[in-house]
Specification:
With about 110 residues, the chain is of the alpha+beta class. It has a single domain, classed as Alpha-Beta Complex (Glycinamide Ribonucleotide Synthetase, Chain A, domain 4). It contains 2 helices and 5 strands; from the N terminus they run βββββαα. The strands form 2 sheets. The protein has a 3-stranded antiparallel sheet with strand order 1-5-2. A two-stranded antiparallel sheet has the order 3-4. A hairpin with a 2-residue loop joins strand 3 and strand 4. The N and C termini lie far apart (about 45 Å).
Length: about 110
């Protein structure tokens, strides 16, 4: 049971960039082939949301398709790494915000 689980916290910064389908948010397109998700990326995880497996290939199946999440020692490093991983993922019409993390950088005085 959960009362017997000892939690371990990672004090690094986590930053996630959502990759959305063409037409999101009004009418996201489905069925676009997804490639380029790294099999292994240090301190990075690609979470699936709007994906499906069809005919042996990964395809889009909703608006918010993937979320690239990275752990790093600073917001700036997490941001750089998340966008580096996100840039390798390919599907027609992929779109993602380019300003994730900037507000935190400004608050922390790290600029951008």
């Amino acid at each position: 049971t959960l009362d017997q689980v000892e939690l371990q916290w990672d004090r690094r910064i986590a930053l996630g960039v959502v990759l959305a389908a063409h037409g999101y948010p009004l009418s996201p397109r489905k069925g676009d082939r997804i490639t380029g998700i790294p099999a292994e990326a240090p301190d990075a995880v690609v979470f699936h949301a709007g994906t499906t497996q069809k005919d042996g290939e990964l395809q889009t199946s909703g608006g918010r398709v993937l979320c690239v999440t990275v752990l790093a020692d600073s917001v700036k490093l997490a941001q750089q790494r998340a966008y580096e991983v996100a840039s390798k993922v390919r599907f027609d019409g992929v779109q993602y915000r380019k300003d994730i993390g900037f507000r935190a950088l400004n608050v922390r005085g790290q600029g951008h």
